[in-house]
Amino acid sequence: MTKIEYAKAQIEHLLANPTDRCVLWPYTKTQGGYGIITVRVGRKNSTSRCIHRMALEMKLGRPIPKNMDAAHSCRSRACYNPQHVSEKTRKENIADTLKDGTSRRYLGLQRNNTSKYRGVSYYRNLRKWVAHIAVNGQQRYLGVYDTAVEAAKVRDAVAREYWGHDCFQNFPEYVTKVA
Ligand SMILES: [Zn+2]
């Protein structure tokens, strides 16, 4: 049995016996954490397939166009439970990921410019402002907003939760000091 056949059998099993839990690919993963299978093509070349993408294609019974993402609802990139992946545009996928604040990366999206506010960046692809905050060296995404001011206020509120009222605020005048 080849690796591809093995993976297909695993996915078929999951399609026949649906489960709610994440099913993590225990073998090779990409740097970003997606499960992959590498297949030799000829002597020197190899090609790799994402396991969660294979799972979605088998669920849908058709190939997914190259410009579409296989998006995880569970946000575990190594998961290949067909119930946890759906077909989304890159834009939808990014917006969802930013919205729930779990994005570990920008999914290849370029931050085009930083606003004058701390923790607020403009994303040209989304045509929106994204609020973010670095906590212990890790960026947390706080959502997507129409205006920089909205995003900055959200960032301020979250910063106060972490560091109290004396931390840097974009809008210090909004802080109600608690005696
Ligand atoms: Zn999952």
Overview of this structure, please?
The protein is an alpha+beta fold and 179 residues long. The protein is built from 4 helices and 8 strands. It folds into 2 domains: 1-88, no CATH class; 110-179, 2-Layer Sandwich (GCC-box Binding Domain), CATH 3.30.730.10. Helices cover 28% and strands 25% of the residues. It has a 4-stranded antiparallel beta sheet. Residues 22, 74, 76, 79, 81, 84 line the site of zinc ion.
What is this entry, summarized?
The chain is of the alpha+beta class and 179 residues long. The chain has helices at residues 3-16, 51-60, 90-99, 148-163; strands at 36-41, 45-50, 68-72, 85-89, 113-114, 120-123, 128-135, 138-145. Strands 5-6-7-8 form a four-stranded antiparallel sheet. It has a two-stranded antiparallel sheet with strand order 1-2.
Features:
2 domains; elongated; binds zinc ion; two-stranded antiparallel sheet; GCC-box Binding Domain
Which molecules are bound in this entry?
zinc ion
Average pLDDT reading? 83
Write down how many β-strands occur, each being a DSSP E stretch of 2 or more residues: 8
Structural class assignment: alpha+beta
H/I helix tally: 4
Gross geometry: elongated
How many domains? The number is: 2
Low-confidence blocks of residues: 104-110
Spatial strand sequence of the major β-sheet: 5-6-7-8
What would you report as the Rg, rounded to the nearest angstrom? Answer: 20 Å
Distance between the termini: 69 Å
- Please indicate the percent range of residues in DSSP E strands (runs of 2 or more): 15-25%
Main sheet record: 4 strands, antiparallel
| Order of helical and strand elements | HEEHEEHEEEEH
Percent of residues in helices: 25-40%
